[in-house]
Each structure stands twice: as C-alpha cells, then as structure tokens.
Design goal:
Layout lengths: L2 H26 L3 H9 L8 H7 L7 H11 L3 H4 L14 H28 L5 H19 L4 H6 L1 H43 L17
Keywords: Plasmid
Protein name: HTH cro/C1-type domain-containing protein
InterPro entries: Cro/C1-type_HTH, Lambda_DNA-bd_dom_sf
Length: 217
C-alpha cells in the first residue's frame, strides 16, 4: 500500500467522522461557537476553526477530544466513529430502541387479542368429561373389536355388536367436530398473526424516521 493510498484512506475516514460530528452537533442543537467554547474552552471567535476543521475532515479526531465531544453533544462515540447509526446514548430512546419498543408493544397487543379469542373459542369446545368419555369409548370399541370376528360372541351378544356400531359412528362424529373446532382456532390465530404483520411489518411502513447515516465515499 502506497503512502498516497494510506493518506487518501485517512482523509476519507476523517471526512466520515467530520460529517458525523456535524450531525451530532446539529442533533444537540449547538452552534459551532457554543461547541468550541464547551469542548475547547475557547472564547476567541477567531479560533472557531477547530470545530470547522474537525467537521471538514481536515483534522484527525483524537481520543481526548472524542470524549469531550461525546459528553458535550450527549451522543454515542460509535455514531461519531461511523460504527453505529444511533446518535442517542440511551438505547430505549434510540431509533432502533423505539422500533423494538413499538414492535414489542404491537406483539403484546396481538398476544392479548389471541388469548381473548382463544378463551372465547375454548368455551365452545367439549368439556374435559367429554374427552374422557371419548377415550373410554375408543378403549371399549378396541376390546369389542377383538371379538368382532368371533361368530359365537356375535351370536350371543348381537345387541352389543349393534351398539358398538352406533358408538363408532358417534366417536367419528365427535372427532370431526373436534377437528373442525381445532381448525377454526388455528385459522383464527393465523388471522391475528397476518393482521399483525400487515399492520406492523409492512415493507412500505416507516415506523420512525431513520437518522442520516454517513458512509465513507
């Protein structure tokens, strides 16, 4: 790598940092004069070029100045150095933090709506006793089926064979009702999820205005 290339890369980095310094100062609502006084304790207006030099990328930002600048602007050092697009120190108040909070709030609301819908639908589901009877009935049929091909048993207990046939039909009807209800619950949950995604995760929806991100040109 030649010296010219190294100097060019250094200049680009300084320009990136300079743009971020200017963005942070504007975000903090400070003029160059005020920033100069607070960071460098200069009061002579003829020395305002220190801030200008930094923002134009003419000077390399040193660690002590970076620390003072971040404290003065109350901003993130990662933003100044171009590592992050978050100028805000407090994550909860940052752009990404607000988006996460917005999505979390919407997700919790969706979960509440799903819980309410599920509770209402479960009221129409068979009681616990119904499932117990369903299980017992299937076990009974299993035992009867063991002797279903025994001609002696069928001849001695024709009423049991007929009742088993009716019971089998009732079990099938019960299972169909349960399957339909379960499918209804599933579709209801899918609808809640799709509504949430349509309202909160649409690619065209801008949750918050994204801060300006400077890149090395």
């Amino acid at each position: 790598m030649t010296k010219e290339t190294t100097d060019l890369d250094k200049l680009k980095v300084n320009q990136l940092i300079g743009k971020n310094c200017e963005s942070a100062r504007n975000w903090a609502g400070l003029t160059r004069k005020t920033a100069m006084q607070r960071i460098f304790q200069y009061k002579d207006e003829n020395q305002l070029n220190r801030i200008t030099e930094l923002e134009n990328g003419q000077k390399t930002l040193t660690a002590p100045v970076l620390l003072k600048l971040c404290k003065t602007y109350n901003c993130s050092a990662d933003f100044i150095l171009g590592i992050s697009n978050e100028v805000e120190l407090n994550y909860a108040a940052s752009h990404n933090g607000l988006i996460v909070e917005s999505i979390t709030s919407a997700a919790l609301e969706m979960a509440d709506n799903m819980s309410i819908s599920l509770s209402k639908m479960l009221k129409h589901m068979p009681k616990y006793e119904g499932e117990v009877l369903h299980t017992c009935a299937k076990n009974l049929l299993k035992e009867i089926d063991v002797h279903a091909h025994d001609l002696a048993f069928k001849g001695s207990h024709p009423a049991i064979i007929d009742a088993a046939g009716e019971l089998r039909k009732a079990i099938i009807e019960f299972e169909i009702v349960i399957a339909k209800m379960a499918r209804c619950v599933e579709l209801n949950m899918i609808q809640h999820i799709e509504n949430y995604e349509r309202q909160n995760l649409s690619p065209s929806k801008d949750l918050l205005t994204k801060p300006q991100v400077n890149e090395i040109g």
